Amino acid sequence: MNDPAEFPDSPDSPDDGPEARGGGARIPGPRAAADDWDVLPEPRPAPAPPTHDVLKSLLGAWALSACSVEETQAVEDHLTECAPCAEEALRLRDAVGLLHPDESLDLKPLLRSRVLEDCLGKRPARIPVPSWATPYDTETARLDALLQDFGDAEWHTPVRLKWFQEDRHTSRRTTVAGVIGHLLTVDGLIATALGLADPLGAHAGSDPTARTEQFWSSSPYPVTRQVREPWREQGHTLVRTVSFAGRGVADLCVGYGDFSLPLGDAFLERAFECWVHAWDIAEAVDYPYEPPSGAHLHRMIDLAARLLPTVLAVRRRGGLAAPAQELVAAGAPGRTLHLEIEGAGGGSWDIALDSPAAATSADRTVAEIALDGLEFCQLAAGHIAPDDAAAGQHGDREAIRDVLYAAASLSRL
Q: Does the keyword Transcription apply (predicted)?
């Protein structure tokens, strides 16, 4: 058996304390609990407040709202006590205001169309919108952007719709919501031609004025902001349908009661009316509204110019225009009026005076009219009287009057 004395660390060896073993204890004894301490540790001293020089150096960051919460509080507390720093802070804030001027949060009406045009130019849509439907797509989107932030008060703002009937101005008072209901019901004529659901039901007529009166008197939708959603959804559906329809759909006939238009022209006519009524709404709520782009405006003016001979013939049958001159022979050119439209969307057109089917010839031009593009559109919308159109006129006064009144007769409710 081994002698315990030879193994001083053995558990069997007697524990006579550190002195007996000649060395320190390897495992210290338990420490006293904090509650048993006679003296608690001293707390860490609070950090010193920032000096004047430090706070002054933070004024630039404070003016740019780039300080932390603690720094912002320290600077603002200092400004209440230090007049020179307070003056410097005001100068810095004014300088920041010049670098970052306040701007209106309202989106520019043409922003969406510009963004879409840029995007489609870089990456064409897989199913592109037909060129003749693009003005309608753009104008409905611009009007929808105008309506987006309208409150209840704006939706009930009075709007006066104006048009020219026979030889006099006519108007009708409604609201912003009533205008959108009017657009919804007349756009429904295109929906019907495409085999889509009519917003007025299956047995509604095709006269635009009668349809609008029917909607206003017994609408399935309250004539408030709720009318916006069905109008916008119908517009999306129309554009989507013709985009997938393929070639030939532009020639489909759309009935307007006592006349009809090819589908391509009907989309242009609806784009024109959408813009005109958006203009009416913007004027009622005192909001600026830009005209269509030059390319789209040209298409709308071209449609109006192409319709003028037919409207002139209708007015002549009603005794509202001078009689036509007989053509020398079938197919021979009749009298012509040269229409010059200036500004955005402008161009020149030769208007047949004696028959919609008659050929035109520069040799038989009896009169000329020059008009600004927007002024011509106001005339065609019935917003200005023919006698008030500031037109450059030359030639046959009777022919000029007949064409100006025919242009105003393009308008309707």
A: yes
Contact assessment for residue 67 and residue 58, using Cβ atoms and an 8 Å cutoff: yes
Longest dimension (CA), the chain: 151
Give the span between the Cα atoms of 352 and 23, in whole angstroms: 127
Q: How far apart are CA 281 and CA 227, in angstroms?
A: 15
Which residue type is seen at 123? Answer: R
Q: Is the C-alpha dihedral spanning 296, 297, 299, 300 positive or negative?
A: positive
**Cα-flanking dihedrals φ and ψ of residue 371, to 5°?**
-140, 150
Model confidence pLDDT, tens digit, residues 72-120: 888 888 888 888 888 888 888 878 777 655 555 555 656 666 676 666 5
Q: Which structural domain range is residue 78 located in?
A: 52-99
273 located within any domain: yes
Rounded to whole angstroms, how far apart are CA atoms 308 and 321? 13
Residue 395 lies in a domain: yes
Q: Copy the structure tokens of residue 33.
A: 């609990």
H/E segment holding residue 255:
strand 253-255
Nearest to 410 by CA among 244, 219, 261: 261
Distances (CA, A) of 222 to 81, 229, 316: 61, 12, 42
Q: What is the pLDDT of residues 53-72, one digit of tens each?
A: 888 888 888 888 888 888 88
**Do 246 and 195 have their domain in common?**
yes
